[in-house]
Design a protein that fits this description.
- The structure is a single chain.
- It is built from 12 helices and 13 strands.
- The chain is of the alpha/beta class.
């Protein structure tokens, strides 16, 4: 997280351009457990943390922590409660424009209880609240384009039911919203959630033709395309990941599909061969929480896209951002300034792509 002085400095030195992050805004209550209990058993909560989570919230907070030089804005729906105030205040304190956050009287702000066992995966108990009521009519992409924003990020598909649902015309709120953003001249970037909804591939498919970039992990890429990307032993199936990436491109994604996994990321573009970038090895003992690592990766990708960096530079700093996130207790508190990530990859002067 950045200090108050750093936030004020960013406001005063703000450069042209900007990114608006739309979608999930969630209050995360993260419980670190002694172990995962069997049903009916007891486990000790060793530590508790509270933070703001969800695709849009995590990505925009990470961009602020990275020292993104342009304008940052958010749009979505909150409940009329303390959690909603907490989300709004946390973003405003980082110098993020929160005018696009609408309050829905009589509804609760989305919240999640995250159960984290160190060295293991985490489990989420989620209440959708106000997030479930976000519709495309609540967002005006043209207003963000008019104020100089360049990138429109939407996250997460498959965790915004009012946007995800297909209508009688075979479209969806997400498809309409992304189309409106592109028509306004914004570059559209989308992330999915790791849902097991059987409608995953069908609902995502209607939004793909309105996406410039899709940035997802290997599980989400597999579920969006119906392709198994790991074998029963958990080994990543490289040929299957490449098939999934190409299938997403064939589904209408215009400029690029970025699939990230603990082993590597693969960047697919319509005209060129996929670019593979190995991940950095991480000592499991150094992982405080895996919550938000994918969002940190995504934030670094958006930063690099906005600044016109090469695929190689963007992929490398995105991996480093994810590594730093693993060392934080919440989804966002481990993210350093972008200058640190660039120094770590030995590329202080990014090249344009």
């Amino acid at each position: 997280m950045r200090t108050g002085e750093e936030v004020q400095d960013r406001r005063e030195r703000q450069e042209p351009g900007g990114i608006v992050c739309v979608g999930n805004f969630i209050v995360d209550r993260i419980h670190t457990l002694s172990y995962w209990p069997e049903q009916g058993s007891l486990a000790h909560i060793l530590h508790q943390d509270m933070g703001v989570g969800g695709g849009a919230a995590n990505v925009v907070t990470d961009l602020a922590s990275l020292g993104f030089p342009g304008r940052l804005s958010v749009a979505g729906t909150l409940g009329d409660d303390r959690d909603g105030d907490y989300v709004r205040d946390r973003h405003a304190a980082l110098g993020i424009d929160v005018e696009g956050l609408r309050t829905l009287p009589g509804h609760a702000t989305a919240h999640t209880h995250v159960m984290n066992v160190p060295g293991q995966s985490r489990t989420f108990f989620y209440h959708g609240g106000s997030n479930d009521l976000l519709t495309d009519s609540a967002i005006d992409p043209a207003a963000y384009a008019a104020s100089g924003h360049r990138i429109f990020y939407l996250g997460y598909l498959m965790l915004l039911p009012a946007l995800d649902r297909k209508d009688e015309h075979g479209s969806s709120g997400a498809a309409r919203l992304l189309k409106a953003a592109r028509d306004a001249g914004l570059t559209t970037c989308v992330d999915f959630v790791s849902s097991e909804d059987p409608a995953f591939a069908d609902q995502v498919a209607v939004a793909l033709p309105h996406c410039d970039y899709v940035i997802v992990n290997e599980t989400e890429a597999g579920r969006a395309t119906g392709i198994a990307v790991r074998d029963k032993a958990g080994t990543l199936l490289m040929s299957s990941v490449e098939t999934a990436g190409q299938k997403l491109l064939d589904g209408g994604v215009a400029k690029g599909v970025v699939i990230h996994a603990p082993e590597l990321c693969i960047w697919f573009t319509p005209a060129d061969a996929p670019v593979r970038t190995p991940a950095y090895p991480v000592d499991p003992a150094s992982i405080v929480s895996p919550v938000g690592a994918g969002d940190a990766f995504c934030a670094a990708v958006l930063y690099g896209l906005h600044e016109g960096w090469s695929i190689e530079t963007i992929s490398a700093v995105a991996h480093r951002a994810a590594v730093h996130c693993l060392g934080g207790a919440t989804a966002t508190d481990g993210i350093p300034d972008m200058s640190i990530l660039l120094a770590e990859i030995g590329d202080r002067v990014p090249t344009a792509g």
